[in-house]
Amino acid sequence: MTVEQQVTTTIDVGKLIGSVERFRTEGFRLVQIGCTKVGDLYEVNYCFDKDYHFENIRITLSGDTEVPSISGMFWNSFIYENEMHDLFGIQVRGMNIDFKGTLFRTAVKFPFSTPSVTVTKGDNP
Amino acid sequence: MAFFEMVKTALRTVLQKPVTILYPAQAAKKTPLSRGHLTIDESRCISCGTCQRKCPAQAIILIKEAKTWQIDRLRCVVCNSCVDTCPVKCLFMDTQYTAPVTARTVDIIAITYVKPAKPEKKDTPQ
Amino acid sequence: MTKQIIVPFGPQHPVLPEPIHLDLVLEDEKVVDVIPSIGYIHRGFEKLVEKREFTEYVYIAERTCGICSFIHGATYCQGIEQIMKIDVPERAQYLRVIWSEFSRLHSHLLWLGLFADSFGFENLFMGAWKTRERVLDFMEETTGGRVIQGTSKIGGVRRDISSEKLDQMVKDLDVLDREMKELTTVFLHDDSIRHRLRNVGVISREDAYHLGAVGPTGRGSGVAIDLRKTGYGAYDRLNVRVVTDSCGDSLSRCTVRAKELFTSTDLIRQAAKKIPDGPIDMKVIGAPDGEYFMRAEQPRGELVHYLKGNGTKFLVRSRIRTPTLSNIPPLIKMLQGCDLADVPVIVLSIDPCISCTER
């Protein structure tokens, strides 16, 4: 079984646009933007791929930092950035298509940021 | 270029007998491995609670003091996880699906396992 | 100045297997813009990972989707095995390949049937699903479930296939090949289907690559990305052929999926010939500590499972990015400029599996 080598680099929020531009000029495609809650901080992974070569850049931020959108360079990032906003509450500045919180309609706002979502007795049969 | 390909298939299907089964008038086709519903042999259960801990849908509830084992058939997803992890192998997967019901109920089964008595200690020779 | 009206498409529509909502902005009969809206099947799977042990989460990962369920379970198991550095026995890897390829066959046959139904060819729809029953019979005889297999576990597989059963299966593949050949001849050469699908929903190669089209949606425009070439599982010992087509319209996406049926049966024959004897699982001790992005090829494209553990029985994060989520931006591009009557055919041609998308 061949194990895929994966490269992860952690960078600062300010350097995000510059790094993503490098991937764009070299011909990479965007695979996904994923968010993880670790304690009180959020880790956002930007994954790129070209010819089965996988690279990943990671930024760490607190709940009220604003992240610049990369939709100027990758038009399809709006779907991941809107999902990140709807589920975690991270503010993204400058999305090309901004759903303003209506892409994922859940009963509890920002469900993945709250530590535990409880269901009162009588809701679930 | 293909001429009248679909007509050949359609004519053949019309002349064959139907492939559909008139379920539930006829029985559904089943294999020996099919997962239908869960059954328990209550005379072998030792009330360890492993099936309750391993169930991903939390469908099994075991009450040790009252010696009952209950299952909510509509929550069970027939994953076979409890059958694999039961230490005394008292759970079995039957091949027939659960019958449809009109109200949500739980099946409560009383456990009839009796722990065999320990053999009496022989007097040790002095 | 023509007036613009908004027509809602979905969530209930006869052509959609799962609910998705699209607001179509129309001028006369041409679609000018599309605004998607998802969230009808959001079940919060990724939150459930904090409440179920990592060995039990396999059952939940499998039930993300009914059409592509085996590959979700197998990819999750492979991700955890990479983090814990477990070497799965060879026989288990080949068995996973055989079940994955059968899963791909069943998914493509289901899609071919739905696609024929979307342009009104109901006889072909029923013919495709009749052939699919053979695949489901094999799945039930070897795993116990027609749609949800439940045979992947961390460290290997839970059930074995005997060598008599494997020989019987290879003989049955000839019958299956014959039936699939009749079906695909109709799909690829029938005049009425060609009139309906040629130059409908065109997307160029550059657009498809940069917008993130994966799987047959991208391969129909010439973007040759097939994750089986990276060699996970037993795929590095098998010969995988990548099928592409260059036109970029609905007919080429249909052609790619029809031809992939035959690469799947070829892979199953190769795996059944090379499968070694041996154990099918191994004991797992400890808990995962670390992270990994496990990528696999689902029938619809590239699947990414991101798993992160911190040494306890419960994982910190499990993120599933399914191919349909990545195919929605190309869908928006394809729908701009088409006629209203072509919208169901184009939406179905990317093979939307919305229950995977929203977990």
Keywords for this entry:
heterotrimer, B: 126 residues, alpha+beta, Alpha-Beta Plaits, three-stranded antiparallel beta sheet, two-stranded antiparallel sheet, 5 strands, 17% helix, elongated, C: 359 residues, Cytochrome-c3 Hydrogenase, chain B, globular
Q: How would you portray this structure in words?
A:
The complex is a heterotrimer of chains A (125), B (126) and C (359). Chain A has helices at 16-26, 78-88; strands at residues 6-10, 29-38, 41-50, 53-61, 66-68, 91-93. Chain A has 125 residues and is α/β, with parallel strands linked by helices. Chain A is globular. Mean pLDDT of chain A is 78; it is low at 120-125. Chain B has helices at residues 5-15, 50-54, 81-85; strands at residues 37-40, 60-63, 68-71, 91-94, 107-110. The longest helix of chain B is centred in the first third of the chain and has 11 residues, at 5-15. Chain B is elongated, with a radius of gyration of 24 Å. Chain C is α+β, with helices and mostly antiparallel strands and 359 residues long. Chain C has 13 helices and eight strands. Chain C has helices at residues 45-48, 57-62, 69-84, 90-118, 122-143, 163-189, 191-197, 205-211, 215-219, 250-274, 323-335, 343-349, 354-358, and strands spanning 4-9, 21-27, 30-37, 152-153, 156-157, 289-298, 301-310, 317-321. A three-stranded antiparallel β-sheet of chain C has the order 1-2-3, covered by helices on one side. In chain C, strands 6-7-8 form a three-stranded antiparallel β-sheet. In chain C, β4 (152-153) and β5 (156-157) form a beta hairpin. The longest helix of chain C is centred in the N-terminal third of the chain and has 29 residues, at 90-118. Chain C is globular.
